[in-house]
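Quick one, tokens below:
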């Protein structure tokens, strides 16, 4: 009996505790909720949600208009320097990588065989000149004898005149041979045909070189100035040609990742035909390349400055949204609510869009977070967001 009484008493105690907890919870649920204090009162706590957004300010500034194309660098002149005569290379007067000027000595071929040929040709000339002098004297005698009594026949006179003509031809041939040997002797001194940078040496000192060698002695590349060939869509060529009539257009060469500007030059010309397979036309820009930032066969991104639009109303392109009724932006009002505004975009350059209708300077537009907004939504600018009116990659300052 004692044990059973203890068990019953324990169960009753646990049941009492559970009933007490249930009563306390029931009393808490029945208590009225207190409204939370806040800026919007009870209506804000139960209704509109504040959306964090990034913003930027609409600005008025000069907007550069660029056309971008992929191009490759080409040397203004590339010369494979070869020997024009056969002989032994006896002197190399250049260093690999050296900058040389037009006319500078590069190498010397052994001139002694050509000096011997020149002496032989001069000796032949002297011999034929002496024979010609004797033939002319005899011709004068034959003419006098023929005219004074016909001592000699007309045939003898004609034969002597023919001999004089043959010797005159021989003298001229000897002189031409001398000129040819002198020219070959001149070719033994190999000079730079253009100013440029010497490449790697192809032939070592002491080797026998021939005029028919395909490799040549060296490759001379002109780097100042240098050319860049790039392509643009055929639809842009007419506009480029029109702007070229007003003056030279500026071309900027950027690295392959389009982040680092390498050099600035000017547009030289447009090719005379369009590539039908790609629908693009080739353009050629010229760069002074004084810092040698451009090298032949290097791939670059070319930015052609077409024009600069003065006092344009611009906004970040990230603010532009597109819907069934056209392009629009969300404009933040002073009370931190947004208004949906339809706008007209005339041009987008990099990360900046030119707005011709719908926005005024100094207005603030939303650039991130638009997917959660509608007209009248309450917003809160993010802390540390991008500064308003962030400039594109090609800024107006780069035009000046």
């Amino acid at each position: 009996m004692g044990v059973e009484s203890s068990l019953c008493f324990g169960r009753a105690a646990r049941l009492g505790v559970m009933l007490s907890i249930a009563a306390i919870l029931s009393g808490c649920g029945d208590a009225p909720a207190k409204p939370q204090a806040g800026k919007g009162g009870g209506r804000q706590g139960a209704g509109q949600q504040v959306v964090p957004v990034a913003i930027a300010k609409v600005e008025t500034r000069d907007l550069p208009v660029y056309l971008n194309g992929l191009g490759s660098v080409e040397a203004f002149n590339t010369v494979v320097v070869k020997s024009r005569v056969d002989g032994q290379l006896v002197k190399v007067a250049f260093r690999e990588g050296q900058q040389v000027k037009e006319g500078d000595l590069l190498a010397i071929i052994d001139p002694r065989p050509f000096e011997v040929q020149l002496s032989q040709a001069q000796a032949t000339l002297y011999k034929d000149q002496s024979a010609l002098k004797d033939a002319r004297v005899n011709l004068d005698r034959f003419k006098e004898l023929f005219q004074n009594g016909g001592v000699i026949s007309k045939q003898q006179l004609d034969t002597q005149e023919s001999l004089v003509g043959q010797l005159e031809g021989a003298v001229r041939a000897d002189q031409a041979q001398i000129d040819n040997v002198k020219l070959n002797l001149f070719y033994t001194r190999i000079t730079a045909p253009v100013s440029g940078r010497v490449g790697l040496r192809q032939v070592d000192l002491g080797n026998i070189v021939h005029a028919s060698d395909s490799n040549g002695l060296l490759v001379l590349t002109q780097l100042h100035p240098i050319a860049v060939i790039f392509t643009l869509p055929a639809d842009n060529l007419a506009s480029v040609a029109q702007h070229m009539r007003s003056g030279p257009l500026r071309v900027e060469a950027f690295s392959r990742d389009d982040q680092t500007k390498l050099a600035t030059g000017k547009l030289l010309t447009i090719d005379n035909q369009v590539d039908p397979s790609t629908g693009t036309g080739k353009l050629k820009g010229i760069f002074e390349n004084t810092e040698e930032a451009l090298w032949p066969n290097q791939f670059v991104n070319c930015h052609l400055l077409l024009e600069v639009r003065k006092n344009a109303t611009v906004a970040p392109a990230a603010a532009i949204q597109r819907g069934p009724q056209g392009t629009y932006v969300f404009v933040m009002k002073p009370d931190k609510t947004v208004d949906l505004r339809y706008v007209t975009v005339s041009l987008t350059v990099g990360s900046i869009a030119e707005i011709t209708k719908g926005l005024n300077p100094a207005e603030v537009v939303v650039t991130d977070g638009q997917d959660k907004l509608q007209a009248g939504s309450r917003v809160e600018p993010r802390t540390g967001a991008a500064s308003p009116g962030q400039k594109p990659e090609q800024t107006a300052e780069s035009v000046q």
